[in-house]
Amino acid sequence: MAKVGWFLNRTIAYLSHAGAIVGVYGLLFMTGMITVDVILRYFFAKPLMFGVEYSGYLLVFIVYLALGYTARVGGHINADFVVRRLPTRQHNLIDMTTLLVTLGLISLFLCGAWDLWIDAVQSGQESTTIMRTPLWVPYTFMWVGLVIFILDVVVLIVKKFRDLSKRTD
Q1: How far is the C-alpha of 121 from the C-alpha of 164, rounded, in Å?
Q2: pLDDT 10s per residue in the chain (169 long)?
Q3: Are 107 and 154 in contact (CB under 8 A)?
Q4: What is the DSSP annotation of 139-163?
Q5: Distance (Å, rounded) from C-alpha 21 to C-alpha 24?
Q6: pTM for this one?
């Protein structure tokens, strides 16, 4: 059983790291695209037709794909000024509670993102810009990123549960 847990943890870690790396490449691409758009707009008065629209999609791409990795490395905002001063067991209980609440909220967000995606796929929704981008594409980044985030939160819950199960005398 321990090997299964190790394998799942490594697989989820791989997904998180892959999401972060792909997000970094998305950031580089977005930066390059905005730079080219500004140069073309300023010097030639011919901006990219898709620059603003695709920058927004890339922002969604970057944010959602990096959520899981950020959770894994403890990079999300924590308001733990008081919690840090508590004994380890109480600190772990509060962490477990916040992780469970986070899991519930992110699950609700995932349901919403999934509904958006299904609706966009079934109805063939497109952006109202000149590019007519199918909206299921950016919506895909949302639910994929949220699934990875949920998997990482579950891993953190399991680790915190193990910490709570250990006897501290």
Answers
A1: 44
A2: 467 678 888 999 999 999 999 999 999 999 999 999 999 999 999 999 999 999 999 999 999 999 999 998 888 877 777 777 888 888 888 889 999 999 999 999 999 999 999 999 999 999 998 899 999 999 999 999 999 999 999 999 998 888 888 765 4
A3: no
A4: HHHHHHHHHHHHHHHHHHHHHHHHH
A5: 5
A6: 0.87
